Amino acid sequence: MISVQNALEIIEKTSRNYGSETISLEAAANRILSTTVYATINMPPFRQSAMDGYAIRQTTRIAFNVIGESKAGDANNFSLNADEAVRVFTGALVPDDADTVIMQEHVEREGEKIQINTMPKKGANIRNTGEQISKGNLALAKGTRLNSAAIGFLACLGIAEVSVFTLPKVAIIVTGNELQEPGKNLPIGKIYESNASMLSAALGAIGILDVQFCKVEDDFTATKEAIASKLLENDVVLISGGISVGDYDFVRKALVELGVEELFYKVNQKPGKPLWFGKKDTTFVFGLPGNPASALTCFYVYVLPLLRDLGGYGKTGLEKVSAKANFSFHNKSGKTLFLKAYLGNDSVDLLDGQSSAMLHTYAKSNALACVDANTVNLSVGDIVECLKFDF
Amino acid sequence: MISVQNALEIIEKTSRNYGSETISLEAAANRILSTTVYATINMPPFRQSAMDGYAIRQTTRIAFNVIGESKAGDANNFSLNADEAVRVFTGALVPDDADTVIMQEHVEREGEKIQINTMPKKGANIRNTGEQISKGNLALAKGTRLNSAAIGFLACLGIAEVSVFTLPKVAIIVTGNELQEPGKNLPIGKIYESNASMLSAALGAIGILDVQFCKVEDDFTATKEAIASKLLENDVVLISGGISVGDYDFVRKALVELGVEELFYKVNQKPGKPLWFGKKDTTFVFGLPGNPASALTCFYVYVLPLLRDLGGYGKTGLEKVSAKANFSFHNKSGKTLFLKAYLGNDSVDLLDGQSSAMLHTYAKSNALACVDANTVNLSVGDIVECLKFDF
C-alpha cells in the first residue's frame, strides 16, 4: 500500500506519447494546438477604414469633391486628386492615394461636395495592413488552448483546419454479476449499474465524447477477453469493480496475465483503497473500485490529471483551493481522506453520506475536502485543502 | 445611449419562458432538472454486505458451519440456524436470518467450518435497505445541476430518462459583403468571416451545440428575410454587423419592420457601443457589433447571462473576480471599458491590442478588466473588477 502522494507521482512520471490530429477549426474549440500557427496573410489584409467617413489625402484644404464610394467588400482602388474624396464605410478598402479618413460626423455634405469641420491627424481612422498581425508572424504558439477568441482569430486569418493534440481514447469496463441496466426491472440481489454513465459524464465534461463501453460478469475468461479487446483500441482503460481480493475479483489476475505492468495497487486512502494502476505498451489501465463514490473520487484525483495531460492540457487535475473548515473531524483511520464537501466563498462544509457506496450527497457537492493521513484532529477554522469540481 | 448597468437590467427584467424536455440520462450531464426527482426504489434495494466475509446471526459462539455462498448478484436468501454462516461478498444479499457480517480477515476457515477471532457489533458490515435513500423520498430537487455524481445517483435508482430545462435554440446571422469563408481565396477588399465560428465556440462551451447559421450580404431585403426566418425557429438570434448608422447598415431597420421591439440600442461602453437588444414574441434578438472583439465582449457580458438563464442555470454570467491592477490607465472616454486582460492569482495584467477589430491578444486573455465610465484614473494596485472566462 502506497501513499496518495506516491501514487500521484507514479502516474505523473509514467512515460507517455502525445498524439496529434488535424481537424476543422469548428471542432477545435477548447483543444490544444500541437503546432505553432503562423499568419498566412496580413490582418487586416489591406488598409481598412475604421469609421464611416471620407478618405482623402492630408492637406490644408477643407472642401472636396466626392468621386466615388467604397463600401465594405468593394475592391475599387480609386485614384484621388488633392481635392477629391471617396466615401468610405467601416471595414472598406481605403484607396492607396488616401492617407486619412475623416469621420462623417465631422463633415458637411451637399450633393457631391463635402466640407470638413475638423481635420484629423494624418493616418487617422485607418487600420493599416498587417496592423493586427503580419504575414509570416507567429499567430498562436504550440500549446495554446483555443478559447473562443482564438477560434475567431484563426478564422480571420483564413485558417479552416488546425493541428491539435488528440484526446485520449477511453474505454469503460464495468464488472459485476449484480449490475442491471437502468430503465429495466430490478431482480432481487441486483443493483442498477451507475458507474458507466457517471464516468461518461465526467469524461464528456472534459471533451472526451467517444467512449467505448463494456459490461462483464464476474468471470475470469470474460473479464480477460473484455480487457484484452479494450487494451488494443484505447489509450486509457477504466475498469470498475473486481479489483479487491474477493474470490470473484478477477480483474487483477486478468491484467497480470495480459501483461499489463502493475505500477501500483492499493493506496492508503479512503475511499478508494483498492485502486490499481498499470500500463501495457502505450495504454494505461486504472482498476477503479466498484463503489460509485470511490470510483468517482479516484477518477477526479488520479485519472483526470493523466487524461488532461494526454490531451495536451498539462498535468492539471482539479483546482486546489484552501478553505476554512466549518466542521471538526477526527481521522482515526491513518489514511488520507477525500470527503464529499461543499466549498463556499472561503469556507468548506462537510456533507452527509460519506460512505463509498453513496452518491446522494456527492450529487450536491462541489469539492473533495482532503484530510491528510497524518492529520488526526481537524478543528473548526483549520485550513483544509479542497479539490474543486464543477462537473 | 444607456449605461452598462441599465442595459444589463433591461435584459434581466425581460420576461421569458422556460422550456423543458425529457431526455436520456446519458445526455443530461450538466443540465438542470426541471422537475424534482423522487426515488422509485430503495437504495440499496436489499440488505447488502459491505465487505467480503461471513453472514451470521449475532451470538456468543465463535464456530460456525458454512452452508452456502452469496456473491454479488445472487438472489438466494439462505435460512440460517444459530451455528450456521453464509459466505458473502461485497454487494451481495445478506440473508434475512443474518444480522451481522464478519470480515474475512477476522475469520479462520477450514473446509466448511469457520472460527471467528473478533465478533463485531450487531449489524456490522451491512448496508441496510434504503440506507442511502428510501423509495418515495426526494432524490434531487428541481433546479439541480446534474454533475457526474448526480448522473450516477439517478442511474443507481434505475432512472434512464430525466426532465431538464431545454437549452435555448440559437441562430447566428453574420452580415457583410466583405465576408469570405475561411479556407477559400481572399479577394481584395474582403476579410475572412470569423464571428460565426467564434460565437459557435462560445455557445458550444455552454452546451449549445445545435446552432443555425446564416450569412447575408449588406442588402435590406436579404437581411430582413434572413432575420424573419431565424426569428421563427429560435429562442435567441445573434446578428453580427450592420447595426451602426452607415448607409449599408440595414439590421435595425429590418428588425423594426419585422416588429421586433427595440428594448435598447447603444450602450455607453467600449467596445460594443452600437449593441442592440430587442424581443419579438418569445424570441430575443441581439444586434452585435461586427468587429470580432466587440461581438465577443458583448456576448460574454450581455448574451451569456440570458442564455444561461433560459437553460435553467440562473441569471449567471461570467464569474466576477476583484483583482489588483498591474497597470495604470487613463479613461478619457467617459465610457465603461471592457479591456482584454490576463488574471493571475490576485492581480490582473492588461494586454496589447485593445482595438475592437483585434482578436490576437483576446486569444491569450482569460478575463475582461472592467473600468467604470466614472473612473478616470486607475493606478497600479487599484482594485479592478474582472469578468473571468475560460472558453
Query: What's the multimeric state?
Result: homodimer
User: pLDDT average of chain A, as an integer?
Assistant: 96
Q: Give the strand line-up of the largest sheet of chain A.
A: 7-4-6-5-9-8
Distance between the termini of chain A: 30 Å
Q: Please name the CATH architecture of the largest domain in chain A.
A: 3-Layer(aba) Sandwich
Number of helices of chain A: 6
Any idea how many domains of chain A?
4
The helix content of chain A, as a percent range, equals 10-25%
Summarize the largest interface: chains and residue counts. A-B, 101 and 99 residues
Corresponding CATH superfamily of the largest domain in chain A:
MoaB/Mog-like domain
Segments of chain A where pLDDT lies below 50 for 5+ residues? none
Strand share of the residues of chain A?
25-35%
What fold name goes in the CATH topology slot of the largest domain in chain A?
A: Molybdenum Cofactor Biosythetic Enzyme, Chain A
Tally the beta strands of chain A.
Answer: 28
Structural class of chain A: alpha/beta
Shape of chain A: elongated
